[in-house]
Write a structure and sequence with these properties.
The structure is a single chain. The protein is mostly beta strands. It is 0% helix and 58% strand.
Length: 130
């Protein structure tokens, strides 16, 4: 009677954000289709089709692969941000960075190698953006 249109996968997650609060430590790998805010500590790898925000009390040691990343806390490792890496004044970033676009506020500590990629990027889910 009613035709159901095929929705793209994970569209019901748009606007929803996972959150790890202060004083929480995760050891291992995290994969999320939705946006993610980390105010605790992650020792491991993070992969997402959305945005990762590392809050002022957040700390990541490992590898990040996602669409957009905002860093206010501490990061040490390798980041691949397919679109934008935004480093706030309170951030400390060390390691290797591969981005589409990079924004660094004055006051941030940025000790990393950086490669800017072509805007046509393959995402972890196999899709491409321009």
């Amino acid at each position: 009677m009613f035709d159901k249109k095929n929705k793209p996968p994970y569209t019901d997650l748009l606007g929803k954000t996972n959150r790890i609060v202060e004083a929480t430590q995760i050891k291992g790998d995290v994969f999320s289709h939705a946006d993610f805010r980390l105010d605790g500590e992650l020792i491991g790898n993070f992969t997402s089709n959305g945005k990762l925000v590392i809050g002022p009390s957040g700390k990541v040691i490992g590898e990040i692969v996602c669409k957009n990343v905002d860093i206010e806390g501490i990061f040490n490792g390798k980041i691949t941000a397919h679109e934008l890496l935004n480093i706030k004044a309170t951030a400390t970033v060390e390691g290797d960075v591969c981005v589409g676009k990079l924004a660094i506020e004055p006051g941030a500590l940025f000790t990393a190698t950086c490669v800017m990629k072509n805007p046509e990027i393959n995402h972890p889910d196999g899709t491409q953006s321009k």
